[in-house]
Amino acid sequence: MDVFFDTFFNFQFMADHFDVVWQGFIVTLKLSVVGGIAALIWGLILAVLRQLPGKWLAPVRWIVIAYIDCLRGIPLLLVILLLSSGLAIMATEGAIPKEIGIPQWFGESDPFWYGVFALTLTYGAYMAEVYRAGIEAVPRGQTEAARSLGMSHGQAMRFVIIPQAVRKVIPPLLNDYIALMKDTALVSVIGLVEAVQAGRDLYSEFYNPSGYTLGAFFFLIVTIPLARFVDRLIKKQNEKFQRGMP
Amino acid sequence: MSDKNSTTMVREVAKGETILTVSGLKKTYGKLEVLRDIDLNIKKGEVICVLGPSGSGKSTMLRCLNLLELPTAGKIELKGEVVFDGGKPKNLDELRRETGMVFQSFNLFPNMTAKGNVSIAQIRVRGRKKSEADKRSIEQLSKVGLDEKVDEYPDRLSGGQQQRVAIARALAMDPEIMLFDEVTSALDPELVKGVLDVMRGLADSGMTMICVTHEIGFAREVADRVIFMDEGYIVEEGSPDQVIGDPREERTRQFLGLVLDH
Ligand SMILES: Nc1ncnc2c1ncn2[C@@H]1O[C@H](COP(=O)(O)OP(=O)(O)OP(=O)(O)O)[C@@H](O)[C@H]1O
Ligand SMILES: [Mg+2]
User: Are B20 and B78 in contact (CB under 8 A)?
Assistant: First the structure.
């Protein structure tokens, strides 16, 4: 039993190396906030593009659908690897500006930004599908009422449909957000030291995995309240639904 | 006038003159022929009630009139201007601005208050300032007896109140024609009267109205002309006394027999 605790829950070890894991977790938080917000916005843009009306815009819809299908079907790890190596090579070859190919904006490292890009591209695709479900769940009568008042498709979307759709999909979006937060760990593969990589660094130096456990604690402190919050939102929405309200 | 588009439709139509002409209107969904050959001529100030069995194409006809549904064939003229003649609609924005529509299921925007519902299109479509739009909204809402409910959200209003907000919302756009599609069918019996009263007042004020309805009493009392539709055709039309009181067509008689029986 002592071995068990010394291995996984070595509190002395955790206290000694708290700062290393904590610094890693701050990177995790930054990455998930920046990447998460970008994915939320990009997903909404994709969903709106996918709903554009008319024959002439069909190619736009096809491209968006193809994009969403592809990015939902490729491992995020692969997107991270492709993006980081691809952009870096293009920048060193001079095909794209160095500031874009090897981005180090706001004092963050280039692996950080590659991570943001990859999370945005992949989770934007997931979230676009969530938004779409929300848009399609708004009754058709809403669009008709808006159009009968003379609003354009864009105005109907912006003032009537999207505000209702977003409210409906906040819980599933938050679930995707939790998944995104955990997937930030994959960015360690291109050299970003976030919470998980910090634990690995400690392990290879001291041969003790309690750093991982500490990282897990940090994740749970954020994800469990979020999951509870999602649950409460869903319960509230269901109650509203049962009272027969929209 | 501060209205963005008040100059585009210069022609004014006097009471009693033709305001809307529909000829040869057809609508098919795949193989299903919903409207077969509809001709209609509507004069300013006229109140028309449309009767007919379920599935006869009443809603489809109304929705074609403001091009919520694109007709398969036919011609629609509003105030002498062609708005549809096969193919792409012309002057669609004008048409939608000149026609208000009220739906069976209210379709209020649940993310806005009663006032917000009435104001939004005034601001975004008519180009009115928010303060002016809100002022008009409050006026319209008090006209339909909802002065107290201006700041309520739709889910706090009864069906009858919601429907009256929907009527106020359409009226606030200053339409030339109002289209009503079974606006009392989703209401509890005790709430029907309030909505019908509003419509009666509107008819008295000279509004041009086309009402699809199952309220035979209302049609008889308020309509200038009653139209009976079946299977995509206008089977019979005429004064309420004639069509309801003494129908010429067997199908009209049958339908009225069924409706009036209970
Ligand atoms: N979008 C659509 N696609 C296919 N068929 C449709 C569509 N809209 C209506 N229809 C069909 O057209 C026919 C006429 O429908 P419509 O709603 O105009 O009838 P209605 O006279 O208003 O009936 P009700 O009194 O029940 O409202 C019905 O058979 C209906 O199933
Ligand atoms: Mg109908």
Answer: yes
Cα(B197) to ligand 2 centroid in Å equals: 21
CATH number of the domain at A231, please. 1.10.3720.10
- B109 neighbourhood in chain A, CB within 8 Å: 142, 145-146, 159-160, 164
Identify the residue whose tokens are 């180009």. B127
Domain count, chain A: 1
Boundaries of domain holding A200: 2-244
Which residue on chain B is closest to A140 by alpha carbon?
Answer: B107
For every residue of A101-138, DSSP letters joined together read HS--GGG--HHHHHHHHHHHHHHHHHHHHHHHHHHHHS
Contact between chains at A159 and B66 (C-beta distance less than 8 A): no
ipTM: 0.89
Q: Do A151 and B111 touch (CB under 8 A)?
A: no
Contact assessment for residue B193 and residue B204, using Cβ atoms and an 8 Å cutoff: no
Tell me the chain A residues in contact with residue B101 when contact means C-beta distances shorter than 8 Å: 145, 148
Say which residues have a Cβ less than 8 Å from residue B123's Cβ, sequence separation at least 6.
B129, B130, B133
From first to last of its 246 residues, chain A has per-residue pLDDT tens of 688 888 888 888 888 888 889 999 999 999 999 999 999 999 999 999 999 988 889 999 999 999 999 999 999 999 999 999 988 898 888 888 888 888 878 978 889 999 999 999 999 999 999 999 999 999 999 999 999 999 999 999 999 999 999 988 999 999 999 999 999 999 999 988 889 888 999 988 989 888 899 999 999 999 999 999 999 988 888 776 655 444
* Distance from C-alpha of B161 to C-alpha of B138, rounded to nearest angstrom: 14
CB contact under 8 A, A164 and B111: yes
Q: Give the chain B residue nearest A163 (alpha carbons).
A: B111
